[in-house]
Amino acid sequence: MSQPAFLGLLVAIALLAGFGGYGFYHLGQPSEPAPAQATVTPASSNGVVGMARPEFSLPDLEGTARHISEWDGDVVLVNFWATWCPPCLKEMPAFVEVQEEYGARGLTIVAVAIDEKDAVRDFVDTYGINFPVLIGETEAMTVTRDYGNRFGALPYSVLYDREGKIRFVQAGELHKDTFVRELTPLL
Questions:
Q1: What pairing do the DSSP bridges indicate for beta strands 156-160 and 75-81?
Q2: Contacts with 92 (C-beta within 8 Å, 6 or more apart), sequence order
Q3: What's the half-sphere exposure (Cβ side, CA atoms, 13 Å) at 168?
Q4: Measured between alpha carbons, how far is 89 from 81 in angstroms, rounded to an integer?
Q5: Cβ atoms 130, 96 nearer than 8 A
Q6: Gyration radius of the chain over CA positions
Q7: CB < 8 Å & 24+ apart, contacts of 1-10
Q8: d(CA 174, CA 105)
Q9: What is the pTM of this model?
Q10: DSSP state of 60
Q11: Residue 178 and residue 94: Cα distance in Å, rounded?
Q12: At what angle do helices 86-102 and 176-183 cross, to 10 degrees?
């Protein structure tokens, strides 16, 4: 390899390493505070807010079919996510905290992973997820569309009340303070 080609290769490697380091640095940084008002999403403008939650059934990590009606009577956050999605990973620790704090008052978070079972199991074991996790690849994409996610955004969260009526939708990362603000009046 000639010296100019070798130097070009070194420059390319250095640039890739720099971009990778930048990305990992920002992945670990605290998220910015949530806006003061609720986020308007394609789903809410699409008429999903105020509608009854759609029915669905997906397997859990043990392969047992779980139906969304299992949590009827609870306030439920259905969160569509994936292990390869950086904003999804950023919001999970807050979900664990909120489930722990509000679970006794009737909150259930149901995480629907659009991912492979082994990757999800490793994530759940590593991060101590304390709420139901359902698995689905193609099937989960159908469910997320039924919940108003026309563009396939991840993460995508839908909060519904004890009667099963959708009250709040968030495309993109759901910040803890926004989640608690929308959740509290429903408990």
A1: antiparallel
A2: 81, 127, 129
A3: 22
A4: 8
A5: yes
A6: 19
A7: none
A8: 20
A9: 0.75
A10: B
A11: 11
A12: 40
DSSP-assigned states of every residue in 63-106:
S-EEEGGGGTTSEEEEEEE-TT-HHHHHHHHHHHHHHHHHGGGT
- What is the number of residues in the chain? 187
CA-to-CA distance for 104 and 13, rounded, in angstroms?
51
Locate tokens 């919001």: which residue?
91
The CATH architecture that domain 42-186 belongs to is: 3-Layer(aba) Sandwich (3.40)
Residues 146 and 28: their CA atoms lie apart, in Å, by: 32
Domain definitions of the chain by residue range: 1-29, 42-186
114-140: pLDDT as tens digits: 998 999 999 999 888 999 999 988 888
Residues 130-180: pLDDT tens digits? Answer: 999 999 888 888 999 999 998 899 999 999 999 999 999 999 999 999 999
HSE, side-chain direction, 13 A CA sphere, residue 114: 20
How many angstroms separate the CA atoms of 33 and 136, rounded?
31
For residue 117, give every residue at least 6 positions away whose Cβ sits within 8 Å of its Cβ, in sequence order, or none.
61, 135
